[in-house]
Description:
Blueprint lengths: L1 E5 L2 E8 L2 E8 L8 H11 L7 E5 L4 E5 L18 H15 L3 H5 L4 E2 L5 H9 L2 H4 L10 H19 L6 E3 L8 E4 L2 E4 L6 E3 L6 H5 L4 H11 L8 H29 L6 H18 L1
Parallel strand pairs: 6-10
Antiparallel strand pairs: 1-2, 2-3, 3-5, 4-5, 7-10, 8-9
Helix pairs in contact: 2-8, 4-6, 4-9, 6-9, 9-10
Amino acid sequence: MEVKCWSLGHVLKQATAQGDFFFKATAQLPLFSNEPKLCEKLSQLFPKQSAKIIAIDETKKWMLTEDFGAAYEDTVTNPIPLIAWADAFASFAQLQINSVNHIQDLASSGCLVRDIQDLPQQLTSIFNDDNILARLPDSILRTPQQYQVILTSLETAITALKQFKLPDTLVHSDLHIENIAKVEDEFIFFDWSDGCISHPFIDGTYLFRMEPSSEKQAVINAYLSQWHSFHSIGQLNQAWNIAEVVCYAHQAVSYSQMINRLPQQNIEDLQVAFENAIRRFCDKAM
Length: 286
């Protein structure tokens, strides 16, 4: 049975006498980690928060996993109240903090290292690439002078964020309610194709986009409170706010590489995500 089929991968489900099993094949892209190899390591290091891996082919980026339960979005009321994200994001923060002791293991297991200090140079290359810029509507395009202002703003934010000395951790890069499952009291995180080692607050991407509300702040507080051994909640909120433009830069680089590498047929959804990522980054940096 086909679960999902699109330009970034294929997911199939097979029912058996031992339960359902899932097969996933991930696209071969430069900024994608080796998802099967990474997931195999995650299942060893964090078995309660990871899918159980049955088999992998790390060369082809194929993997077979056991059924890990219902998606979290299917276990809460519909529409999903934003406050339902709070416990999941608190759990993910703990996973990130625990990953600090395993960074070398993760890097050796197919998890890319994406230092935020590399972002200005990566974006400079994007802004100089006519093939990428040709995919943007005129409403998003900026002048060379504006791009320079944008990059300077990013560099300033990265320098400020580094001052908080938060450790690089495991990062999901696409953390939202549809990539989370819940089994009893444990949250399981899946779909690690964009997984990497970077600044932990990169995983605020969906929260940053949301309109301000008490529920949104409750989710942010649930996440940031797990980092209390590093800074006060006030300082963590400062770092979180600085990280927004850096997060958008990370996403802009990711989607630019997808657009530039994949065939142009049937990637309408990625085109929209690419445009939104560039727009959010440029608007925030300006």
